Amino acid sequence: MSTEAGIDVQRQLESLIQDFRTGDRPMPVIVLHAEDAADDDRVIELVDELREGQQRHGTRLAVAPTEPQPGDVDPLARATRLLWDLGDWRKWGGRSAAYRPYTFPRLNLVRALQEATDAPEMREHWPTAPAGTPDGNAQREQAQTHLLRILARQRWRPRRPSRWHRQLLLNDVQQFLPMGILGAFTALLTRPEWYVAALAGLGLMILLAGLNHVPGRAPLFLWLRTESRWFLTTTFLQSAARRRSTSVRLLRPVHSWRAIAARAYDVAEAMREGGPFPLQLYVLALFEDLRDNHRRGSWDLRGLKRTRPPVLFLRRISRENGGVELIRAVSDVRSRRSELDPLLIVAGVAAGDAALLDRGTDAEPPAGRPQPAPWRLQQRLRHWYDEWAGNLRADQSPSRTNALPWVLRAALPRDELVQLRQTDWRCVRARHRPPLARVVWSAYSLVLVLVLAGTAGVVHSLELHRAYCSAGLVSADRDTVRRPAPGGGTECVGIATGDVRFGAYLAGGAHGEGRRMRELEDLVRAENADVLHQHPGTYVTVVYAGPLSSSATDSSLVKGAEELAGVYLAQRVVNENYTVKLRVLLANAGVDMGQQRVAADAIARYADRDPTVVGVVGFGRDLQSSTYVTRRLHEVGLPIVSGTNSATYLPKRFSNWFSLAAPDEHQAKALGFVARQLRAREKDPYALVLARDTKDSQDRYTSEQAAYGGKMLSDEEFRLLPEERYRVANGKPELRLLAGSICRAEHVPSVIYFAGRVEDIGPLMTQLSTEPGCANREISILTGDDLSKARFSGTGGRDGVAPRITLYHAALAELREAASTTAFYQDAVKYLPWLEGKEVTYDSPDLASGQTALAHDATRALYWAASLGDVRQSRAATWVNLRGVKLDGMATGTIDFTDAPLYGERRGHSIVIKRVRRTPRGTSETEVLCSRTAGSTKPLSTKECSIG
């Protein structure tokens, strides 16, 4: 500053600004004038220096054009024109401002209304008839309609150049951002891909923006804008409202629009009449906008970030340029309003015009108060401000007719307006420390938080996609999880309750079983959808748990596809013929049931949420985890009906375990009739138990088979060689060295009890048929029911037996004898699409293994217990009712649980003993030696199972 007066005034301004940082302080209109008229120009220079100093300090400031303007004669109109362009955010520092440019929605609304009122095309539409008459009311309605049409063309905004329209378009679109986010969040609830949610939100924003800018129409959601709510609720406009409604409601757009339209026309009429009302309305709108721009409780904490109040500079005010009328309007509006606004006004006035402001502050301090010494301008300015603030309440009284209470007039003495030497110029420093709110709650912090949140969200989403089979950006279907598959790849295990398709995770995809499984999934889901849509409240839910994954090293998918076909067939038969409908959910226990713990946990968690789940069909392989699985489902009250799990110990330990499969011990005893006849053919026969090594696997079936098979051979008085075990590496059995040691030993066994899997029998045949010592010997191989999954060449399959080797194996399903008493095959042709039009019998390749028949019968048995009396039963009732199940005409005979003891073995399982041997034509021939259909308790005999 180049003068002592400038330094002191600048210090006083900085003192006010620093007080503004700590709280809401009343901001005066500081009017500066010289004591001597000869120094008027120096006062103008001082105001300019103050403006430059505040600009360097980062203050938001605007300069009103006080130069004489042609055209306006009325001082009120000239005063209004001083505020005309203050709704332009660039007049207040533009984008160089410390924190976001100002916005002036209220001031722009008032200007838009002024422009529409003054539009030439509006002049002929103003009513001429007296108000209250029929003609006057009709003309008023027409005038209101035309005024609204003009405002709609202007988008309820001031007429501005095209670059302004782009900015206003962006401002309009910003109000639709929350709706776009809401649309994206709503889309996320359906767990789509991330780009689907993004497109949903973006599409909703584009749609709303397009509707918002339809030409000739009012903006969308006009009644919800900030300026519209202020326009209807401010008491300043109540006198123009003429008892119109001021209600603005989100869910009543028509009512709100009518209120806005009526208020707009009433205000336009008042503005057309002139007087002080338009000027005061402009001032009020400016104050309200600035108050809102510095509101500390806003969502962006802008009031805490903008620590310097805005300053309006008026270089020289006079009656001619409307400055005096503007100061009067400011004081009047502030006196009427109870809210404090942050605007600090600094104006210069000629010494001769100072009296136009009616009243200033005396240059001398009041008597009786201590006076600072020396009494300089700086102390006087501070004293004047304190006295002004203290008398503010009394000065606003209506009786003080000559007072302008918000004006603080300061007379500047000549000696302090003298320009100093340049070396004595002073720059009043401004404390410029960014507030904490601006650092913590800022766009940069928001970007950082968004980046961190986005990164965390992406990482979380990737983790969800890696962990779960169906996942979105923020959520996942936790009923199914991803697990590494044997031999590489990924399998999806758990219970499919959402949009998960286990078939989508099958390796390859060209195999027949894979195609069949995907087709069955679609059929089951379509049937479930029909049940839920057509028969809500009259259905029960059964879960099928089986091996629904594929692997290059395991063929368990064959079993899963065949069992699933039986479950679906039972579902269709039930839903076509019974009142209580059947819904089937699929649970994948992984390749060869390796993930059945995970599947059991998923089923148990889902059963806690869905009371319609009454039981489980499946879990058809005996593993180390079978005990855990049965106990876990026992805890939630779910019975298990298995078609193929032949574990002997499970029904003895768990009351919720029911199985159609003959136990391993029964199978070994049945094979004992064959072994007895083989023993009689040789004088001193040797026998061997060859078992799969289960040390590094979960398999328990082979250990059970080996134990019961060894006991059976010992009971039949064979000379038992030490048990041999073979390892499996990369899905292939390591049998070459083992076969060599067996065949070249001193005693070569004539009977081998093979406790292994169906996929291992082929390599064993190959090794035995080529090894010296075994190739020219007659060898019999006895084995359990897992061989029933093989398709020998005589029945159209690719499996076979080696020359001079006879295979005897047990099977779980006697289909031939039961075929004449069941509708199973007719139903299969009717409901299984791939069998349509074919002649299907018990030995058809698709059904010969018995897997489909056993799964069908197990499902029918569980459904019978769940729908006893054609009434939907509870889970507990289903468990109890299972011990009363007796179903004739099933695919394997009669399913009878009525004689099943609690914690004990039942009788009446279906069982078959088959022989497979090489024919002279080089094919494998299968024949049934003896069998029993389900429900028959008559024991087998050696004579009945004669090997000839």
Identify the CATH class of the largest domain.
Alpha Beta
Terminus-to-terminus distance: 126 Å
Widest beta sheet: strand line-up: 6-7-8-10-9-11-12-13
Helix content: 40-55%
Tally of separate helices: 30
Largest sheet: 8 strands, mixed
| Proportion of residues in β-strands | 5-15%
Q: How many structural units, i.e. domains?
A: 3
Which stretches are poorly predicted, pLDDT < 50 over at least 5 residues?
A: 162-167, 360-374
CATH superfamily of the largest domain: Response regulator
Structural class: alpha/beta
| CATH-defined topology of the largest domain | Rossmann fold
Mean pLDDT: 84
Instruction: Using the CA coordinates, give the radius of gyration.
Output: 47 Å
CATH architecture of the largest domain: 3-Layer(aba) Sandwich
Instruction: Tally the beta strands.
Output: 25
Overall shape = elongated
Characteristic terms for this protein:
948 residues; alpha/beta; Rossmann fold; 3 domains; eight-stranded mixed sheet; 25 strands
List the helices and strands and how they pair.
Elements: H1 4-22, E1 29-34, H2 40-56, E2 61-63, H3 75-82, H4 105-118, H5 134-153, H6 162-174, H7 177-188, H8 194-212, H9 226-233, H10 238-241, H11 253-272, H12 276-293, H13 302-305, E3 311-317, H14 323-336, E4 344-349, H15 377-390, H16 392-395, E5 407-412, H17 436-440, H18 443-467, E6 468-471, E7 476-484, E8 490-495, H19 512-534, E9 539-546, H20 556-577, E10 581-588, H21 596-609, E11 613-618, H22 626-635, E12 640-642, H23 650-653, E13 657-659, H24 664-681, E14 686-692, H25 701-715, E15 719-720, E16 724-726, E17 728-729, E18 732-733, H26 736-743, E19 751-755, H27 758-770, E20 779-783, E21 805-811, H28 824-831, H29 851-866, H30 875-881, E22 886-890, E23 893-896, E24 911-918, E25 924-932
Parallel strand pairs: 1-4, 1-5, 2-3, 3-4, 9-10, 9-11, 11-12, 12-13, 14-15, 14-16, 14-19, 19-20, 20-21
Antiparallel strand pairs: 6-7, 7-8, 8-10, 17-18, 21-24, 22-23, 24-25
Helix pairs in contact: 1-2, 1-15, 3-12, 3-14, 4-11, 4-12, 5-11, 7-8, 12-14, 19-20, 20-29, 21-22, 24-25, 29-30
